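ugh ok fine here u go
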Amino acid sequence: MFDARFDKMAQVIVNYSIEVKPGQIVYVWSTGFEAQPLLLSLYREILKAGGNAYLRADVPGASEIFYQYARGAQLDFVSPVDRISVEQFDAYIRIGSETNTRRLSNADADAVVRQQTAQRPILNKRMELSAEGKYNWCVTRFPTEAYAMDAEMSLAEYTEFVFSACLLNDPDPIASWKRMGQVQQRYVDFLKGKRQLKVQGPNVDLTMSIDGRVFLNSQGKRNFPDGEIFTGPVEDSVNGWIRYSYPAIYNGREVSGVQLWFENGRVVKASAEKNEEFLLKVLDTDTGARTLGEFAIGTNYGIAKFSRDILFDEKIGGTIHMAVGSGYPDTGAKNKSAIHWDMIAGMQEGSISADGVEFFRGGKFII
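structure:
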């Protein structure tokens, strides 16, 4: 599939999202062959910017074979190339281009968790280097039939959904992302120095400390599309309950009706209407998996439809999302885990206050 907007997408990602400089090395990884038009456009733009690129496209079916036949120490194997991609590269672009988003639904959950645990040092190192300003990364999507089916759209409709969410129909997408960043910066500035958040509504009753933590302005840099502000709550401060109004999807498995109860920062009780056993297994991945690593507010009101893809859904304007597992060090978060599982709740009937001052009500910022 070719569309000139893929060239535009590549230009924005290379020149704005990760800002490739001459001599830098960029690891470009697609989860399938479908993304060839975008992969090649990115390669072209990286070279034009004076950078160098290593291109990777996964072979469809390989992951299924791995989890069917890998045993013991094989589940702990980490490719030296993956290590090098963090230790010796300057930037990372990951393109989701799945042809079957449910391909690992029947994979052994213990095996999946073990492999993710083995990959944890790479994830943590990438986050640490990014927080230090030494490593740029961006995650995006290429439209496929699989994503379109999950979103209950035709491929043509889904493609337009992606381009619209990425602001690629605007005459100058980079200027549009910068304008979004300016609006969001007002919210970030308001929250600077605040100590306590209270989140209330039909689906949530939570308190958490953000004392000493930083809200970041997510404006098309690490995620593409984007649109959120987020932080890492003080690890032992989260108390209360939340019911996630959207299905939570992880490794191709959909867990719906999720409810979590927090005491002193840890999930002490969890339930789900569908796939509860999988939810509990993931929460027991490691010691950090039951601690909240991220709290965020979605600000992209151009994403109006749930698509079953967290890259888009967590940005829906008027929602919050919280991730159990690893936090982002540049927010001040200290929790580390092999997982980072975002779950989304609507806030159209809820409110958020900081140090007793309400700043978000009915799905909108009111400051």
